[in-house]
Amino acid sequence: MSVVPATIPEDQPEDRAIISNVSLLSTHIEQHVENCYDRTLSAAIRRQIAQAIIQRVILGRMSYLDVSREISSSLQSRVSGAENQMNDLCKLGTQIREYIDSHAADWRWGTFDSGVVFPSLFRGEQVVRPQEVVGAGA
Fold first, then answer.
1. What angle (nearest 5°) sits at the alpha carbon of residue 100, between those of residues 130 and 47?
2. Is the pLDDT confidence value at 13 over 70?
3. Contact predicate 12/104, CB 8 Å
4. Is 109 helix (H, G, I), strand (E, B) or coil?
5. What is the DSSP string of 32-87?
6. What is the pairing mode between strands 107-109 and 132-133?
7. 106: CB partners within 8 A, 6+ apart
8. How far apart are CA 40 and CA 101, in angstroms?
9. Does position 14 have pLDDT exceeding 90, yes or no?
10. DSSP 3-state assignment of 121?
């Protein structure tokens, strides 16, 4: 049973918007990695990008442009335009951060345990988006 706050700001994004944007981020990271990097390293690169965006942009509140430059410089893309795509991924992280910040509920991320390429998302104590693990649809 979920508890609804007594007053909900009119501009508060719904849970669905946060969850769908997190899913979109994961999907776009996966597509970016498949299109721009060596496939033999795809799981490690997905994890590295997701970890950087979640820890630095969403939780660490760093500039998406700074994080994008850091990630791009540490990875060797095989296509031109990868840096612009990385900017877009990090900018989506900023949007997710803003949605979570304006939401009354407590949102948190799971861990990057072994094999995890994208962590779980929790609303309070409830998993609202499960983790993605190498070999399990990831």
1. 45
2. no
3. yes
4. strand
5. HHHHHS-GGGHHHHHHHHHHHIIIIIIIT---HHHHHHHHHHHS--SSTTHHHHHH
6. unpaired
7. 123, 124
8. 36
9. no
10. strand
What is the distance of C-alpha 101 from the center of its chain? Answer: 15
* Residues 6 or more apart whose Cβ sits within 8 Å of residue 48: 71, 74, 75
- The Cα diameter of the chain in Å comes to 52
- Asked if pLDDT for residue 93 goes beyond 60, the answer is yes
CA distance 133 to 138: 6
- Cβ-contact 56, 62 below 8 angstroms: yes
β-pairing verdict for 116-118 and 132-133: antiparallel
Q: What's the mean pLDDT in 91-120?
A: 95
- pLDDT band at residue 11, thresholds of 50, 70 and 90? low
Which H/E stretch holds residue 133? strand 132-133
> Tokens 């609202």 correspond to what residue?
128
Amino acid occupying residue 113: D
**From residue 44, how far is each of 60, 75, 82 by CA, in Å?**
21, 11, 17
> Rounded distance, CA 54 to CA 48, Å?
10
